[in-house]
Amino acid sequence: RDLLLLVDLSGSMCDVLPELKECLLDILARSEEADRLCLIGFSSEPSLLCDWTMLDSQDSRSMVRKRIQDMVAHGGTCLLPALELAGAQLTSLGRGGSPVDEVTNNRSAAVVLLSDGDPEEPPEALCSAATRAFSSHLGAVVVALALGAESR
């Protein structure tokens, strides 16, 4: 399966950053060798922390683990550009040039958004952006998880 993790690293996540990292490390530990993972962090700008990586070796898992451990929270919560990047990453799975393209059609895909649920953009704009980002990936499961005492 393909798992895209979209992680809120804004300043409001400072208090829950240890729990967020623990959650991400747990996801990594429970992933199978045939899984492929992409990690996007967002605050004022989105950042591709880890491009699509097969989790079939200790080296690849160690690299993802390091990216998770190195995350810091700062800045605002601009989710729109992160949704656009997530859509582009999902789209990249179906394009040529990748050594894993031949297995893409047989894989399930999931997008997991981890946030405190306090983006700067209005809900209508987020719904439109999510529709654009995921409309060509109708088989993808999208899950939003809220972290923190004041999460929405």
Describe the structure.
- The protein has 152 residues and is of the alpha/beta class.
- It has helices at residues 17-30, 58-69, 79-92, 101-104, 123-134, and strands at residues 2-8, 36-42, 46-54, 109-115, 141-146.
- Strand 1, helix 1 (17-30) and strand 2 (36-42) form a beta-alpha-beta unit.
- The chain is globular and about 40 Å long.
- The protein starts with a strand and ends in a 6-residue tail after the last strand.
Key traits:
24% strand; 5 strands; alpha/beta; 5-stranded mixed sheet; 5 helices; 152 residues
Helix content class: 25-40%
Strand content: 15-25%
Helix/sheet category: alpha/beta
pLDDT averaged residue by residue = 84
Radius of gyration: 15 Å
Order of helices and strands: EHEEHHHEHE
User: Count of DSSP E strands?
Assistant: 5
Shape: globular
Put simply, the count of helices is 5
Biggest beta sheet summary: 5 strands, mixed
The N- to C-terminal Cα distance equals 28 Å
Strand order across the biggest sheet? Answer: 3-2-1-4-5
- Unreliable stretches (pLDDT < 50, length at least 5) are 95-103
